[in-house]
Amino acid sequence: MVSFEQARRIILEHATPIGSESVGLPDAAGRVLAADITAPWDMPLWDNSAMDGYAVRAADCATPPCRLRVTGFLPAGARPDGVAVEPGCAVRIMTGAPTPTGCDAVVPVEETDDGHHEVTLLEAVNRGQHIRFRGEDVAAGIPCVRTGTLIRPPEINMLASFGIALVPVYRRPTVAILSTGDELIELGRTPGAGEIINSNTLSLAAAVSECGALPRIIGIARDTRDSHREKLAEGLNADVLITSAGVSAGDCDLVRDVLEELGARQVFWKVGVKPGGPTAFALHGTTPVFSLPGNPVSTMIIFEEFVLPALLKMQGHTKTVRPLFKAVLREDMKKKPGKVQIVRVTLEKENGRWYASSAGNQQTAILKTMVDAQALALLPEDATYYVAGSDVDVHFYGNYIERESPPPRS
User: Fold this and answer.
1) Which of these, 55, 61, 298, 306, could form a disulfide with 293 (CB 3.0-4.6 Å)?
2) In 3-state terms, what secondary structure has residue 349?
3) What CATH architecture is 2-16+172-314?
4) CB 316 within 8 A of CB 17
5) Which superfamily does CATH assign the domain made up of 20-43+136-170 to?
6) Alpha carbon 106 to chain centroid distance?
7) How many CB atoms neighbour CB 336 within 10 A?
8) What are phi and psi of 207, to 5 degrees?
9) Within 10 Å of residue 151's Cβ, how many Cβ atoms?
């Protein structure tokens, strides 16, 4: 049995990007850049006005109020050819318009009497004020967006401003998802005695999609070697294979044996974590194979802690593990030593501090506790008891990762 930290380290050592592709800029959002993008020109490409107002010479406006003659007008999109600011004069200018020859400052219209033939400036003018200078944002020839950057709306705007239509991004891995067991039935049927709807496949597919990878559902492997061999062989054609159930030591737990028959190398089996201890990780060539427990709560928690970081790294992300932060326990918590225990918790923020409460019954058969959880608390393997008021390490779960305050528990 490997420790929680050893398991994660081993998995991430074997998770590598699977190549890159070029996509159109509108489709690049949420992807990770696979090569530096170099600025083809300066941004801005010319000195331009940052305000609606007047292009002036600062030396003419040292002592306010001062009166200048208005000799021209430059709207956004106009060329400054033939337009100049002569001593004692001003040019009316709009935001984004190139500054004319002779201009070394722009005065906002709010600091004038808004004259059209003559204008009075009401405040002293500083050289260079309200001018966006050529190249001050990004200079030509330097990377404007670097490899490994998650492409968000700001990156889309930057790339579009430079006319970049095709963007090199890391590929999204295809993830085969297989559940095992004779007791499973597909969605759409009402379960009879001894039957269970195959919910794990759907929740895993949702989790795979949520992190940007591409789920491929390959059905159910029944409790025979032939069925396992057929389905596992199909799954090994994907970039990643995730199986659910059949990974313990029972008579019908065939996943590890059949994977070995198919040429997979088991890297570890069993992890010092609760829930989710009977987790296995194997490699088929360079293809990662995650064999997760069949209990839905264990499946989702192990995906969160081990599979998600690997899928993010394979897509080029540099930050793959959710950051931990401290929360104050509202209640006592106890555990057995020897394993990291992961507790489903709800959160509240008071006076700048997070407070954590159990989301409910922590037995792995209780799915509602997972639904109600806004975060997961990680209790170290050597810990045995926490009293109310103690600090614990927690991280947000699922979509709550970006929220400052999670929604109230229903």
Assistant:
1) 298
2) strand
3) 3-Layer(aba) Sandwich (3.40)
4) yes
5) Molybdopterin biosynthesis moea protein, domain 2 (3.90.105.10)
6) 40
7) 10
8) -65, -40
9) 21
| pTM for this predicted structure | 0.88
Helix, strand or coil, per DSSP, at residue 28: coil
Domain at 48-132, CATH class = mainly beta
Phi-psi region of 44 (alpha: psi -120 to 50; beta: other; left: phi over 0): beta
**The one-letter amino acid at 205:** A
Q: State the Cα–Cα distance between residues 209 and 312, nearest whole angstrom.
A: 11
Give the right CATH number for 325-402 from 1.10.10.10, 2.40.340.10, 2.30.30.140, 1.10.10.60: 2.40.340.10
- Our CA dihedral for 211, 212, 214, 215, rounded to 10 degrees, sits at 20
Task: Give pLDDT tens digits along the chain (410 positions).
Answer: 999 999 999 999 999 999 999 999 999 999 999 999 999 999 999 999 999 999 999 999 988 999 999 999 999 999 989 999 999 999 999 999 999 999 999 999 999 999 999 999 999 999 999 999 999 999 999 999 999 999 999 999 999 999 999 999 999 999 999 999 999 999 888 989 989 999 999 999 999 999 999 999 999 999 999 999 999 999 999 999 999 998 877 667 899 999 999 999 999 999 999 999 999 999 999 999 999 999 999 999 999 999 999 999 999 999 999 999 999 999 999 999 999 999 999 999 999 999 999 999 999 889 999 999 999 999 999 999 999 999 999 999 976 544 444 444 43
- Name the token pair of 1: 């049995």
Any idea what DSSP says for residue 84?
Answer: B
Which residue do the tokens 């069925």 mark? 227
Tokens matching residue 65: 């109020």
